[in-house]
Please model this.
Amino acid sequence: MTESVATKAMFWEPRASDAVVCTLCPHLCHIGNGLYGVCGVRKNNGGQLDTLIYGLAAAVNVDPIEKKPLFHFLPGSRSLSIATVGCNFKCAFCQNYDISQASKGKNREQFGRAVTPGEVVAMAKQTGAETIAFTYSEPTIFYEYAYDCAKLAAEEGIRGVFVSNGFICEEPVRAIRPYVHAYNVDLKSFNPEHYRKIMGARLEPVLEAMKLIKQLGFWLEVTTLVIPTQNDSNEELTKIAEFVANLGLETPWHVSAFHPDYKMTDLPRTSVDTLRRARKIGLDVGLQYVYSGNVPGDDGESTYCPSCDERLIHRIGYRVLENLVSDGKCPECGQAIAGVWS
Model:
């Protein structure tokens, strides 16, 4: 493991007595000298806000783009996936808590191996990845690293992807738009109290960020981890589906199965029947593409034409077995299929 090296952060404002305000995410942390933001990876060093995890990769893998999940963005392609430690949420059900929460508490660990943006792009080219995904933990908190990687990648024709909780301020979303082309946002609930208690954050800024992401022309897909007794009621799933529909009926919605992890080991796994119920709710409100996740082999993984119901992309798990989309259209009826296909 490599020790962290402080690098000047983007998006902050100075205050009196060497304090700063971080304007990267809606926590808007007011940070005194020598102290940290909520994420644990941004620190006030003598009146300057620094990021402590620039170039410090805690995880690097080559994944199918479907694992993000992105089903309408270069399906069947590879994505070089990278993360640092840290997150601006504290989700009790986090499946990557070993890196997302490592920067918090007494230890405040910042670990990983040194990988420069140039090396990240070189790895993407060597592995045939068409995208670089900033994922696993929360890319917003390693924004500077992601920004430099995505900018350099764009020069090589490699597209950037954010897999995010959507808790980010407007200016950084706008700034990264030329270099990041797709977002998958986890809309974890439609209950503000649930966001406050379980995530340690607020719902409304996530909703506003999703509207902005869509408005700016990023390709957007939305994921909801369906957790028994937490967000699986018909009422709440309908509210989520209606919000996604208001973003655009073509916006894919992924309803994924929960498995017990981290601080939520006392809840059962999400049943296939629950996911099928959630998927039906999405389709009933008019969404054209609703997918069930974490249940390989279920028929909710494949893409169907919203006009003639022809199966266009056959998936099992993260594998694309067949892709019939031609020039962005259904070959049977000519219906345009929303997405980025080449």
In short: Helices lie at 97-100, 117-127, 143-155, 170-176, 192-199, 203-215, 234-247, 272-284. Residues 234-247 form the longest helix (14 residues).
